[in-house]
Amino acid sequence: MTSLLNKVIWITGGSRGIGLASAIALASKGTRLILSARSEEDLHNAAQKVRSVSGSGVAPLVVPCDVTKPESVQTAWTLISEQFGGVDILINNAGIGIFKPFLELTLEEISLSLDANIKGAFLCAQAAARGMQERGSGVIVSLNSVAAKTTFTGASIYAASKAGLMAANRVIRAELRDSGVKVIDLFVGATETDIWSPANREEFRSRMMQPEDIAAAIVTTLELPQRIMPEEIILRPQLGDL
C-alpha cells in the first residue's frame, strides 16, 4: 500500500463536513495538512479539532481561500508554495449546493454554483497539478456527487455543475496520467452534512452516510498501490439514494 506519512495534502472546504472528517482521518496517518475555507475563524477551530481528535499533535496549516475568486486561490497557493513548495495531494472538496426548481433559479445562483463547483475546483487543480507534473507524481481527488449521474428533481444547476466537473476531470486525467498524476472522482450519495436542511437530516439520518464514512473511503483510496488508477468511485448509502 502507498504510505501517506509526511505527504503534503491540501483540503479545500476543510472546516467542516467531509473536509474536516477527512483532515482528522489523514492527520492520524502522519500527513502534513493544509486546510482552506472562506472563514478563518472556522478554519482555526477545525485545525484545533484535527490536532486534538487525530492525536497527531500537529495542527494543520490554515489558509483562508474563497475558491470562487481567482485572486483568493492564487493568494492561497502562493502561501502554500512558500511553506511546502507544493502539495502531494489535493482534495477538491469546496463546493455549494443550491436546490430549487429550475424555473426559480436566479442568475446569481447559477453563477455561484458554477463558480464554486467547477471554476474553483479547476483553479485549485491547475495550481497543484503543475508541480505534480514536474515531480512525476501526485493525486487530485474531487468530491463529486451522484447527482452528476442520476436525475434528482430540484437539482438542475447542482447536477449540471457536478457533471461538468466530471467531464473536465476525465480530460484532465487523460492529459496528466502519463506524468504519473492521478485524477480521481468520488461520486458521493446522501451524506449527513449541512448541504441538507436540518429537517431532512433529522428525517433521513438513519439512511445517510456520515462524513467519517467518506473520509475512510478517501484514505483507503489514497493508500492503494501506486500502479492503480482509481478513476471514478461511486459511494452510496447501503439502502440507496433518498
Characteristics:
242 residues; alpha/beta; 7-stranded parallel beta sheet; 7 helices; globular
Task: Summarize the structure in words.
The chain is α/β, with parallel strands linked by helices and 242 residues long. The protein has 7 helices and 7 strands. Helix 1 links the parallel strand 1 (8-12) and strand 2 (32-36). The relative contact order is 0.15. The protein has a 7-stranded parallel β-sheet, with helices on both faces.
How are the elements arranged and paired?
Layout lengths: L7 E5 L4 H11 L4 E5 L3 H15 L6 E2 L7 H15 L4 E4 L14 H29 L2 E8 L10 H21 L4 E8 L9 H7 L6 H12 L9 E4 L7
Parallel strand pairs: 1-2, 1-4, 2-3, 4-5, 5-6, 6-7
Overall geometric form: globular
Q: Fraction of residues in helices?
A: 40-55%
Strand content: 5-15%
Q: Kindly, what is the distance between the CA atoms of the first and last residues, rounded to a whole number of angstroms? A: 34 Å
Give the structure's gist in a few sentences:
By secondary structure, the protein is an alpha/beta fold. The chain has helices at residues 17-27, 40-54, 70-84, 107-135, 156-176, 198-204, 211-222; strands spanning 8-12, 32-36, 61-62, 89-92, 138-145, 181-188, 232-235.
